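Quick one, C-alpha cells below. Sequence please?
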C-alpha cells in the first residue's frame, strides 16, 4: 500500500467514526420514555429523565395563555395526577378534559416542566360515533333520513 492510500484510509476511518459518534449522540438525545402518569410517579428512576406522559387535563385550575405561549394544569392518570407548567405553542384542541401527551422533565419543586404538547384528535372519535349511528338506523340510511322517512 502506498503512503497516499494509507492517508486516505486513516482519514476515511476518522470521518466514519465522527459520523457514527454524532449519529449515536443524536439518537440518544431523541430517545424518551413514554408512559402514563401513575407509572411515572411510582418509579423514581424516571424522575430526573426526559419523558413523555400521557393523560387527561384535569377539569379544575386550567390556566392557558396563548399570547405568552404557556399553560398550567394538572395531568391526570388513572389514579394520580402531576402538576404541569407548559411553555410552547398551545394546540387548538387543548382544554380541560382533553387527552394530551406532554414531553419534558420534573423540576426540583415537583412541577413537571413540559416543552412539547400534543392533543389527541377528536375527529377520530366523532367518525366512530357517526358509523355507530349508521349501523343502528334502518336499511343503512343515515339516522337523519331514517327519522324523516315515513
Amino acid at each position: 500500500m502506498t503512503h497516499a492510500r494509507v492517508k486516505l484510509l486513516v482519514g476515511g476511518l476518522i470521518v466514519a467514526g465522527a459520523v457514527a459518534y454524532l449519529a449515536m449522540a443524536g439518537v440518544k438525545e431523541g430517545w424518551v420514555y413514554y408512559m402514563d402518569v401513575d407509572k411515572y410517579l411510582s418509579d423514581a428512576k424516571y424522575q430526573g429523565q426526559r419523558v413523555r406522559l400521557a393523560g387527561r387535563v384535569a377539569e379544575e385550575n386550567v390556566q392557558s395563555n396563548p399570547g405568552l405561549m404557556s399553560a398550567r394544569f394538572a395531568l391526570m392518570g388513572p389514579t394520580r395526577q402531576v402538576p404541569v407548567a407548559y411553555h410552547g405553542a398551545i394546540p387548538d384542541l387543548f382544554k380541560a378534559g382533553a387527552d394530551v401527551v406532554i414531553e419534558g422533565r420534573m423540576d426540583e419543586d415537583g412541577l413537571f416542566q413540559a416543552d412539547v404538547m400534543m392533543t389527541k384528535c377528536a375527529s377520530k372519535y366523532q367518525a366512530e360515533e357517526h358509523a355507530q349511528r349508521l349501523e343502528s338506523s334502518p336499511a343503512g340510511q343515515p339516522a337523519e333520513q331514517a327519522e324523516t322517512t315515513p
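The beta strands are 33-36, 51-57, 63-65, 70-76, 81-87, 99-106, 112-119. The CA atoms of residues 35 and 95 lie 21 Å apart.
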